[in-house]
Records
---
Amino acid sequence: MNKFKESSFKILTYTASLFTIILLFGIIGSLFYGGLPIFKIVSIKDFLFNTDWHPTSDPPDFGILSLIIGSFLVTVGALIISIPLGLGSAIYISEIASARMREILKPIIELLAGIPSIVYGLFGVAFLSPFLIKIFNIPNGLNLFSASVILGIMVVPIISSMSEDALSTVPKNLREASLALGANKWETIMRVVLPAARSGVLTSIILGFGRAVGETMVVLMVAGGAAQIPKGIFQPIRPMPAAIAAEMGETVIGSQHFHALFGIAIVLFLITIITNLLTEFVFQSKREIK
Amino acid sequence: MKKIILLLTLLALITVPALAKKGNKIIVAGSTTVLPIAQATAEVFMDDNPEINISVRGGGSSVGIASVMAGTSDIGSASRHAKTKELATAREKGINIYENIIANDGIAVIINPENNIDNLTMEQLKDVFTGKIQNWKEIGGSNRPIVVVSRDVSSGTYEVFNKLVLKGSRNKTDALMLASNNTVSTIVSNTPGAIGYVGLGYITDKVKALKINNVEPSKKTVQSNEYQISRTLNMYTKGKPKGLVKQYIDFILSPEGQKIVEEQGFISAK
């Protein structure tokens, strides 16, 4: 009887994992099924490197370069904001703060991760945008900069909590050895602890990148939605997820526009797959060091 | 028991298509703008008259008018008037296509209340949205860059505005493209240099609706066709509507039907 229990449990968990994989391949399959027909209408080269995105004009233009660049810039902008904030708070929590301070700070920063993205979006539209117009005296508050700021805030908890984990797994004797050799706390953190934890920190940054590049609601609401290559940081942009979200609901299923949106989804999917593989790779190299 | 159920099912299978064949069916095809009105009114109409079946299809205004002429639909809906070319084809075939205006559609141009501009001509409005006019001072306002706020390319409001104001030209490339009437309204209300457009039902007191060619946007001016960024939504029939089709169109034009029209964000026909 016990044996039966054990084997049935095995089968159950096996089916669960198999089912998850089938789902994944189903999604990938439907993505390509929906997206590939667009390349009968425009060549892959034109699709990826043409900057004109006018999907509902007559004749339509399906060039997504400005969307790719928009996604890339907003993600880089988000990382510029979130890396110093996330890494800084990780170092403080793991290396400097007292045990009590740590108990308070950690959950508060992680709370940021629990805020729904629509709330961030509303915050951007209703408060950040008019605020930026006032302090920078710019005409428009929905732009590359404001979307980067909000995405950056969203990515902070990912970088902070994962880096903090990495930092705290650095063995204590490394720190003690460094301090014993006469290095001060700052030198110990910068020269010993951070390098020892670098693969964990790098992983957190790559995951943060993946989160920012795929985030939809915020860029839909705050980035401004103009399909152009921006000439400055206060210019509106249209990242890929925003284009898909804004247009999918109104397109006719099976139309060229519909396939083009799936084409964008393929590009986005490939970017996130590559990021995930990169994380795996970094983790792998970490194991080898040990 | 099982046999009885089987028998009843079979009976139902045979009789339902037979009933439908009796000609209690209305086919509506055409404009995707009219689609929500047709769908919502058809649902209520079918609830009131369970023996009548209305099937509503999209396809676009041209498809709607062509399908009435070809006889593949009973009602062809269109968000524009029939073109002279279409009327000529109809005459050649000896068909009289009859226009039933079922609703009005209007778009208000809104700016920030701080802005002192009250009126724009259609020409100025086009130049603002295409980027020919970049600063409010060029049209008598204060020295402030214009922030153009448009609806997203797949929205019906964008389509109408694009057709009636831009006449097919494109928005300037750095125009904001926003996903809903409410977001446009919010952004215009907190961006001093902004100009945007929303369906007539979405004007709030936090934004200022502009006069276009000196005509204020309102239900009245849209219905009288004085306000230029408006259009009628039409249902075309072969000759004057009669029978079931007349019953259905009369229902849309009844107070109950027109209430549904307004619920869908449009303006009643009369």
---
Amino acid sequence: MEAMSPLERVLRGIALTLVVVFFMFPIVWIFLMSFQTNETILRIPPSIVFTPTLDNYAALITGKLQTAAGTLDIAFMRNLGNSVFLSVVSVAVALALGVPAAYAFARHKFRGSEDIAFTLLSFRFAPPLLVLLPLTQYFQWLGLSNTYFGLIWVYQLICLPLILWIVRGYFEDISADVEYAYRIAGHSWFSTFRKIALPLAGPGIAAAGLLAFIFAWNNFVFALVLASADKQPVTVGALAFVTASGIQYGQIAAAIVLSITPTLALALYAQRYLVEGLSLGAVKG
Amino acid sequence: MASVTQTRAVPRGFRISKRVLPYVLSLPALLVCIGILIPFFSAVVYSFQRYRLSQPWARQFNWGENYLNFFTDSGFWNTLRVSLLYAGTTVILELLLGLGIALLLQRRSTVNNFISIMLLLPLMTAPALAALMWKLMTNPGFGILSYFASLIGLENFRWASSPDTALLTVVLVDIWVYTPFIMILLLAGLRSLPTQPFEAAALDGVPRTFVFFRITLPMLTPYILTATLFRLLDSIQQFDIIYAMTQGGPGDTLTVFQVEAYLNFFQSTNVGRSAALLIILWAITYTLSNVFIKNWLRLRERARGEA
């Protein structure tokens, strides 16, 4: 491993370059496209030489999109707001519900605890439509269809199992002796939970919350089935751009850039937590 | 933190008995999920009914007819075939690629760490949006990939709009999004392997192919299995990429389980068939995930035991 022949070094370099190009190219290309007009996008052969314009973003922000047939009102900023609201509130609710439950599963082997934990985990693996399609009818009866409340409730299916399983692993890693010592000193279980367990599991809770946020943001099918245009997040809203005919391609690209920027920025900002969360969630639990 | 508000309602000095406490803590989470379990049972009931949204008056139990009909239903066999093909191709290709990239990045260096962080980005892109990005790149009019295809002699390569290449196109998007997932897991695995066997092998001058197949691969197997099953479960249920890219088309080329069930429900309003399809998919994933969870628990125990 220490000594690499020059040939091997070159081959590795080429392989890594190809990998980076394949995985980065789409993001870079769409980013470039978002600063172009139809005129420069439609050039053949394509070229990366163009005068950048912010028109596409301006059109999205004002909600008036230029199409071949005139202007079209699409409230994309509303979609963006929905995404932020749905993801933030869903994660907050999931943390409030999931962290105490994870603590219970980690600290107390109570009757049925493993079964319950498995049931919750199995949500992660069930086909979402199996629940969503009947749910459309229940939501109609309950008056929950196309409400934020209903959507956030259903988003718990994504966030809760994730938080439960990652945070549980962190709680299990905290030595019970530390907590016991604190209890012996006359503190209640609740202050033990708050003063000892929560801070020690802090990084795990952060990782789980971050992952849950990204999963919630990236979710597509829940809102596709349960929300109409005014409550839809960006993932569903952007689809309307492609199906609506004649929208300028640069505007579609700009909408995609705005939709993926938050998760990508978060991922870069907190990549260490993220990798830890991903691999814990999958390997260690 | 949020539990502060939850428990503050409990008067000071009130002691929750040790036996009840875990239930109290996990109950809210359970209640939220149980509410969502009810539709699951409705889906089971629907799957045993003749139930079309267009003919609500004709709704009645037909006990298994939806399932029996599948045997003679070429649409169903197409769904099964495409789903398995999609899952099989994506998982095998992603595994090979992910393993290759993880091996390339194994050594800790600034460049390698930077690249592995960059590779997180596709994984953090919403699959539905990733499909739209590739749709823009494969547009026959101005798509850069269509242009590249024409450069290597593939004039009029139609990507997702031709039945011959639609599967290839969505598989490509899946690979773009999810290979980094496998790469991350395997890289974590590779870097956590004990170094002694490798040092010993290097001292003895053991050939590197031998080291790879006899030491690296066996030691990495638990990670490979986990990554594979995780991806397999996701991939056989893939909806976002395929729906955003082609909505199951052209024709019925890409009507995988969830896409077919969605179209059955909302377009042909055949709720019974849609539910039966999803139950079959659920049976497949349930079997797979049981295998997965057992394997996972063993891994966890092993990780704990050694740590």
